[in-house]
Amino acid sequence: MMDGVGEKTQVSKQNPGERVKNFREVSLGYSADEVLREASRCLSCSNPSCMEGCPVRVDIPGFIKHIKEKDFDKAADRLRESNIFPAVCGRVCPQESQCEIYCVLNKMGAEPVSVGGLERFVGDWLIKNRVDESPSPPLSTSGGVAVIGSGPAGLSCAAELIKNGYSVVVFESLHEPGGVLRYGIPEFRLPKSVVDSEIDYLKRLGVEFRLNVLVGRTVSFSDLRRDFDAIFIGSGAGLPYFLGLPGENLNGVYSANEFLTRVNLMKAYLFPEYDTPVRVGSKVAVVGGGNVAMDSARAALRLGAGEVHVVYRRSGGELPARQEEVVNARGEGVVFDYLTNPVEFLGDGEGNVSGLRCVRMELGEPDSSGRRSPVPVKGSDFVLDFDTVIIAVGQGPNPLLPSTIPDLEVSDRGNVKAGRDGRTSLERVYAGGDIVTGAATVISAMAAGKRAAQSIHEDLKT
Amino acid sequence: MNEILSRERVHSEAVLLEVRSPLIAQSYQPGQFIILRIHERGERIPLTVADVNVEAGSISLIFQEVGKSTKELASFEVGDELLDLLGPLGNPSKIREYGTVVCVGGGIGVAPIYPIARALADKGNCVVSILGARCDELLFWRERMDELSDSFYVTTDDGSCGRAGFVTDQLRDLIDGGLKVDRVIAIGPLVMMSAVSGLTKEYGIETVVSLNPIMVDGTGMCGSCRVTVNGETRFACVDGPEFNAHEVDFDELFHRHGFYLRQEELSLKRYLEACGK
To answer: Which of B1, B222, B230, B234 to mutate to test the interface with A (most CBs of A within 10 A)?
Structure first.
């Protein structure tokens, strides 16, 4: 390949020294010139493999072709046919393990086309150029569907249903819709104005949102079954796991869910302009190695922590977080303590956390998932000083809703049992996303929501 | 949405707001609470529900002005709307036929104990109520509580009303005087609930407290409200708020309560200055 052609067009970012002082978006996105240059790298395969990697099967060469023709309007339409959240997905999808890994350029020794970068550009173009677009909602003649939870699964289910002519009501317990897009992923990775714009489009299509409604408490599940023709459960994996170690309830120990909810949903980074406080000390530990850990670590830096460590029990090669976010975190000064596992939270005698007692780990045999399991090294205890600890070791399904639904089959781990088609053990009750699979990605939840909507359509039209 | 239908000052530091919320009024059971956010920049704060009126579709909230959000909420007038109101949250109080139940309400805790005491009385329990406050002026709902109780006692720290001393002094006297107590439920400041728990533990009387740790979402997704009960971590918003008092780690709760003290002071100071106070 010619020089340079084999490489992705680099996207500009705020420089690290500057960006750690603010919550503004790190990636600035492609300019119009850059997007044309990147689009021109697509070989427009007649038998495109990239689409196989996309959980919602976006017509990738199709929308890129329109970019090449500088027809962003058509590119946007093509994208929206299969994904109504291009500005969100372009930003948060792990493209490197989905569409881009299938890009034929990989086989030619080149870097894959930046599908995410292109998608984001078109998504942003849509938001900027079609604010006043008022799509005529299809006539609602097919029936009414209740969607529980307004995260990625619920939103994509609602979008698919409204397109098919159903009237859709989304029930959300928090005061803003979006689920993890709202409370989990920080502003510097996914601006809330982007989330607002994409949800606004759904509202203009006719989806009704009822916020501050906790199904199971505010209204009962049986009321919903009486009032709607079908129900989709997309209540997510919002139950934070703790480590279950001594001292975990000391002051200064947060679940990542709490920390990020305070920062993102409640805008605690703007305290005291906003009323919700958050406290980080001078030395912060984030336990875990996924995207939630990266988000927490980078948010802690921006809140003024002097030093932030990611404490991870495996090695760098096993970090489950997106590579790009690990690089961003490292660039901002986050320190990675690998093969390190906490065994106790230490206190200062006044109820505050003062450190972690850890053990050194080494990697043993691969486990069932193929990852090498960490094994503690005997007698390797050591103490690290921290005044804030954020636990980001995963989340489980929130049991509140399933526990109020008699006869709904739930796994031992609390996940709602549903097939790939979204059907559950109850007639005309569907489920998808993290409540079914456990914590996964935004796009896989969106794919599940879409598939469930297709099942609902099949079942209701007959 | 969430319009304030009536407002009443119950004493110099506390206000009652009757808020329109038909869904919550309909689903509410004694012992549950709500989370509210008063405006766009507001925080989410938990408040217990003191009463509901299903016909009017309203709920009554009584709260003490202790910091920025509650002071600002106290400045709301009839006709104003609360931005966000979520509920009912938490598990309902267990209302059974226990026999003799002592209901202890300390300070603002009289408000949440009232619907529980009423439900216990309706269930046929012998309800003995003890209300406690710092002084006479800070007592409210005496008549309401007296009316539903089989016997009724008041204590004030300074002796300006009822017996001088604490609710625990009254409770100890009743037990020592031969009252057979089947269950105690105590709601009020942490220090009071902890003291009641300590006392009834001595006598082996089953005791329930309604905990009020710091909360954010109130739906079990963050663990801000976690408490140690019988050596295990529980979330007060979904596993409680009522717990067996004798199993609660009160020391830990005290510590966790104070975590944002400096921020709370700063926020209040800023608010009062902006109000010109």
So the answer is: B222
CA distance A207 to A135: 12
In whole angstroms, give the CA distance from residue A11 to residue A164: 37
Nearest CB to B223 within list A244, A258, A350:
A258
**Could you tell me if A370 lies within 8 Å of chain B, comparing CB atoms?**
no
Kindly provide the ipTM of the predicted complex, given to two decimals: 0.95
Q: Is the pLDDT of residue B45 over 70?
A: yes
Identity of residue A359 = V
Residue at token pair 């000391």: A250
Closest CA to A295 of A270, A321, A314, A333: A321
**pLDDT reading at A406 higher than 90:** no
- Looking at residue A424, the DSSP 8-state letter turns out to be -
Which residue from B80, B74, B62 is spatially nearest to B4, judged by alpha carbons?
Answer: B80
Contact A387, A251 (CB under 8 A): no
Say if pTM beats, i.e. exceeds, 0.90.
yes
| Cβ-nearest to B226 among A218, A238, A249 | A249
Asked whether the beta carbons of B212 and B191 are under 8 A apart, the reply is: no
Q: Does A164 touch chain B (CB under 8 A)?
A: no
* Closest CB from A219, A262, A276 relative to B23: A219
Q: What is the DSSP letter of B246?
A: G
> Three-state secondary structure along B135-179?
CHHHCCCHHHHHHHCCEEEEEECCCCCCEECCHHHHHHHHHHCCC
The whole-angstrom separation of Cα B58 and Cα B38 is 17
* Closest by Cβ to B219, choosing from A267, A351, A400: A400
* Chain A environment of B88 (Cβ under 8 Å): 217-218
Which is it for the CA torsion B77, B81, B84, B89, positive or negative?
A: positive
Tell if the CB–CB gap between A238 and B219 is shorter than 8 Å: yes
Beta-bridge partners for B45: B36
Average pLDDT of the segment spanning A67-87: 93
Burial class of A354 by CB neighbour count within 10 A (0 to 12, 13 to 18, 19+): buried
Residues of chain A neighbouring B254 (CB-CB closer than 8 A): 351
